[in-house]
Amino acid sequence: MASFRILTHPEHGTRAVKIGWSWPAFFFGLFWALYKRMWLLAASLFGFIVLSSVFIPATQGGQLISNILFLGLNLTISLKGNLWYASLLETQGYQEQAQVSARNPDDALAVYANSQKASAADIRDHEQGGADSRDQDPWGDQRDERERKDGRGDRVERDEKDDDDNDDGGSGGKGGGNATGTFIG
After folding, report:
1. Is the whole-model pTM more than 0.70?
2. Helix axis angle, 39-55 relative to 60-91, nearest 10°?
């Protein structure tokens, strides 16, 4: 698993940038920089390629020097490229929100989105101050959320009210004295 920086922008959304080594930057340095819209880096790489082909002789020794320089350049871009990309995004108005571990950028964004949903739910629960006493059954457990949404909880309350309206001690009526509170009939 890799670590990713999560950067958000109010208008452009959220991006995940890997922390550390970048294989695409190693193999496709110039094209990687163009794809990431790192224009200054792309221009520098292009200039380096042109200058090295002009000033390094086309001999076997010159070819060795050229290969060593390009290897060093690719290693540097691979090690620092993601950091440079995150810095570029920050200059464009992105703000780092979190660091997450994931297999790829899409998974990192999903992990971040899920953590934001969980955080929002925690905040909402905290602001509500917990459960109301009317939402608890006689044993102290909270009613099931689905039960309240589909209306079964309302029927149970109506049935209990109907049982209370009977003068025969609650043994008659729709509920029939059912202690579990399920709807019968």
Report:
1. no
2. 170
Gap between the Cα atoms of 102 and 169, Å rounded: 62
Contacts (Cβ under 8 Å, ≥6 apart) of 77: 22, 25, 26, 29, 32, 33, 41, 45
**Dist CA 67 CA 140 (whole Å):** 74
Q: Give residue 66's pLDDT.
A: 86
Query: Can you read off the two tokens belonging to residue 8?
Result: 């958000």
Q: Tell me the residue type at 74.
A: N
111 Cβ partners below 8 Å, 6+ apart? 100, 101, 102
pLDDT in tens, 60-100: 888 888 889 999 999 999 999 999 999 999 999 999 988 89
Residue 157 and residue 163 in contact, taking contact as beta carbons nearer than 8 Å? no
Alpha-carbon gap, residue 139 to 97, rounded angstroms? 42
| Distance from C-alpha of 40 to C-alpha of 131, rounded to nearest angstrom | 56
